Amino acid sequence: MSGMNTRSPLSDDPTADPDPIVLAAVHRFAREGFSAPLRQVAADAGVSAALIMKRFASKDGLRAACDDYVLAWIRRVKAENMQAAANGQLLASLATTDEYAPLLVYVMHSVMEGGQLGRDFVEHMIADAEVYTAEAVARGVVRPSRDEKARVRFLVMSGLGTFLLSLLLRPVDDTSDLAAVSRRLQEDTTLPMLELYTEGMLTSRTVLDEYLAHREDES
After folding, report:
1. Which of 24, 140, 155, 217 has its CA 20 to 30 A from that of 192?
2. Is residue 52 part of a domain?
3. What is the pTM of this model?
4. Residue 80's Cα: distance from chain center in Å?
5. What is the pLDDT of residue 84?
6. What's the chain's Rg over C-alpha atoms?
7. What pLDDT score does 6 carry?
8. Residue 62 domain-assigned (yes or no)
9. Full residue range of the structural domain in which residue 134 is found
């Protein structure tokens, strides 16, 4: 396709000016999963399947580029949301979720697909979350943890699990309306999530103190 942006999707900020082939692939994989044929991705991007093979060598190569793009998007959006929380604008930030729905569903397909790419994808998400959570702790937005790595892993796994179950238990009737997935999840989880993260759940430290004492005895 004449005039196509052929730069690497990893250069500079890949979320600001994404490679059109990568963007088309992310949306197609979000709709159909990774079994979607390359010729359909090519048609979406307005290029030939041969060009995709030349650029990315294989379907796995294209998927790896998609993973990199989505991970970069996650880093940016999470950082923006942390800042929004500090400014008291978290809900306004969450209101923009609809436009990102295909990327969220792409994440779920990546996790469900499994294999090394899926495992690496989750581990990259956790590693990135450690960075922006540490920044949030430093800014005073988030309380410090006794075990930052364990907390981050729990939060990432919980978030992915919540979204995955929401998608599996109540699938969207019209697969083209991927935004419905994120709208439904937002409606179901925003209040309990904010309550738990802001106010906590247990009324005393008893269970925590007993666990900490037990762990101390075992060490």
Report:
1. 140
2. no
3. 0.73
4. 14
5. 65
6. 20
7. 32
8. no
9. 70-218
